């Protein structure tokens, strides 16, 4: 419930505060006095875009503040989601600077405009003249019927499953397309894989073969050199090893005559042992190296195959080829597994489709059950507001599954009992749409906890008894909801629990808009003026008193 609206430096409002009652609040005033400016200011704290051009004083900033009394359960999910402090009283503030910068706060915590707009949907339902266009909107029509069904949990569960269904469909299509594309490449990938598998290279094989080929190709040169080295080390007329051994013996004999001799002798012995080991290794290598023409031919063939595959796959190492082989294996296996994956997803789709169809059938039955009483109640209210010949029909056609069930809902309208029903948005006039919207919202409000309802000149195009009946509906609606209504009709103003008068006031060569709550006697006078003009007659004054007496 909106308890207080404070407006500073907005349009032609310098500063004003309005405290609203919890029931039917009516706002009246001359055309151009600024009634709709109040709603414009209110819309800013409901998330509308800000225009710096609306500042009353271009040197200051505009501040709009709304004080709401809320049920914690009503907004708890929003506050938890956005990590905001939840209190019994909710203060929403919007500030607009002369430079156009806009800031918004919820209980003094900064929020963005999208959050503000989301929060407002829990607080205020703002009905303006142009909102009647929603009546022709299929989503709005479906939401009306669903509000009367009042099974939000079932709809949420259905919607959640539908999103899963759509996601599985999307994945299935993507997988199906991938399979078609993969099948086109499968034969070629298989050929490449078979070629690499047949080659059967081991890690680093081609690089090792290059080294082996070098050895095989120079086997004779290697053996000659190794034989010479081994001969000089061990088998020459004066082998190197024998000479070093003799030198070691000579130095060792001098160990007693010089303190450095043992060290030098030990080093020479170490060299002898190292050369002896080298001689053994040279002999071993020499035994291993053999010229093998057959092996050379085999290595050349293997390397030629490797180099050809290097070039084909644009790589440079054996390990690169092995990685390509692994990738090709994965691709081929994936294609072979796609059919199985598609079959699994087909079964999942079928299960979800069956679940959705069962849930949608229940939802359809619930909607159809509400359609007839909805039509009857709307038509009764239409007669009450001066449209006795008008008829509304809620046409529910079962079709394909969609995010909200399987139904297409369309409101059809006949203004003259002609039985020629047509879509409401195409055949109803502005005044008819306005009254029809009031009738529909009054019914919906009985089924669900709508927020504060605000009606901006919903009485357009009506007067007399029809206007009185609109007032009756609003009065009845206000028993359980806060209603704020801008009106030109005295019949509606007479039903108010609180009557606010909007007027222009000239101060210091500036025209400003002000609002005041009327006393009972002031209400009599204002309603009489609405009935008969600026200077009300005695009959108009008496009529105004009767209106107020009846409403009380």
Automatic annotation (TrEMBL):
Source species of the chain: Chitinophaga niastensis
Function according to Swiss-Prot or TrEMBL: May be involved in recombinational repair of damaged DNA.
Protein known as: DNA repair protein RecN
SUPFAM superfamilies cross-referenced by the UniProt entry: P-loop containing nucleoside triphosphate hydrolases
Chain coiled-coil ranges: 328-355
Domain of life of the organism encoding this protein: Bacteria
Pfam families for the chain: SMC_N
InterPro entries: DNA_recomb/repair_RecN, P-loop_NTPase, RecF/RecN/SMC_N
This protein's UniProt keywords: ATP-binding, Coiled coil, DNA damage, DNA repair, Nucleotide-binding
NCBIfam families in the cross-refs: recN
Residue ranges occupied by any RecF/RecN/SMC N-terminal domain in the UniProt entry: 1-506
Family assignment from sequence similarity: Belongs to the RecN family.
GO biological process: DNA recombination; DNA repair; SOS response
Gene Ontology cellular component terms for the protein in this record: bacterial nucleoid
Record keyword DNA repair present: yes
GO molecular function, one term: ATP binding
